[in-house]
Amino acid sequence: MKTTLIVVLLTMGSYLHAQIGGWNPEMEKDVEEALASMIQRTPKLQVFKDKAHGYAVFPKVTKAGVGIGGAAGRGIVYKGGEIVGASKLKQGSIGLQLGGQQYSEVIFFKDQEAFENFTNGNLKFDAQASAVALDEGASIDAAYNEGVAVF
User: Fold this and answer.
1) pLDDT above 70 (res 129)
2) DSSP per residue, the chain
3) Beta-strand relationship, 148-150 and 82-109
4) What angle is formed at CA 34 by the lines to CA 33 and CA 37, rounded to 5 degrees?
5) CA atoms of 32 and 36, how far apart (whole Å)
6) How far apart are CA 136 and CA 1, in angstroms?
7) For residue range 96-127, what is the model confidence (pLDDT) as tens digits?
8) HSE, side-chain direction, 13 A CA sphere, residue 73
9) How many CB atoms lie within 10 A of CB 7?
10) CA distances to 22, 42, 79, 139, 148 from 115, in Å
11) What pLDDT is attached to residue 29?
12) What predicted TM-score, i.e. pTM, was given to this entire model?
């Protein structure tokens, strides 16, 4: 049995103070490209983006494991379509696994409460149960779990 836990940490920072805080302008470009690619493959994600209170995009999450595994990535957090900070994603897992992969991930927050749980560092969940493949006829509300949807 494989157990996976994702812990998402948010480092709040103003876009205007980005250079002082070590902002990486390339990351913003990578995030925009990753999100556009995800929406192109799954157009229904545009509805999530438009209706979400906020979202975080991780353009490159690197995952590897030999028995014990982990994943990590850096991303950007948006609220109302504006950048509000940067975030780090960390994941650990135990179980039968071998290999590695890279992928993009987006986390949508349905409401203020879910967004605040994320920005306060209180978001912990089982990634296996939370990552969703969105079917053509699927309801948007059905994809949210406790105000959070992960793709």
Assistant:
1) no
2) --EEEEEEEEEE--GGGTTTTT--HHHHHHHHHHHHHHHHH-TTHHHHHHH-SEEEEEEEEEEEEEEEEEEEEEEEEEETTEEEEEEEEEEEEEEEEEEEEEEEEEEEE-SHHHHHHHHTT--EE-HHHHB----TT--HHHH-BTTEEE-
3) antiparallel
4) 85
5) 6
6) 30
7) 777 888 989 999 999 999 999 888 877 665 54
8) 25
9) 13
10) 24, 23, 9, 21, 8
11) 95
12) 0.75
- Residue-wise pLDDT for 11-69, tens only, equals 333 333 333 345 678 899 999 999 999 999 999 999 999 999 999 999 999 988 887 88
Kindly state the tokens that stand for 122. Answer: 């209180």
- What is the pLDDT at residue 9? 40
Which amino acid belongs to residue 56?
A
Which tokens belong to 71?
Answer: 């994943």
54-79 and 124-125 strand pairing: unpaired
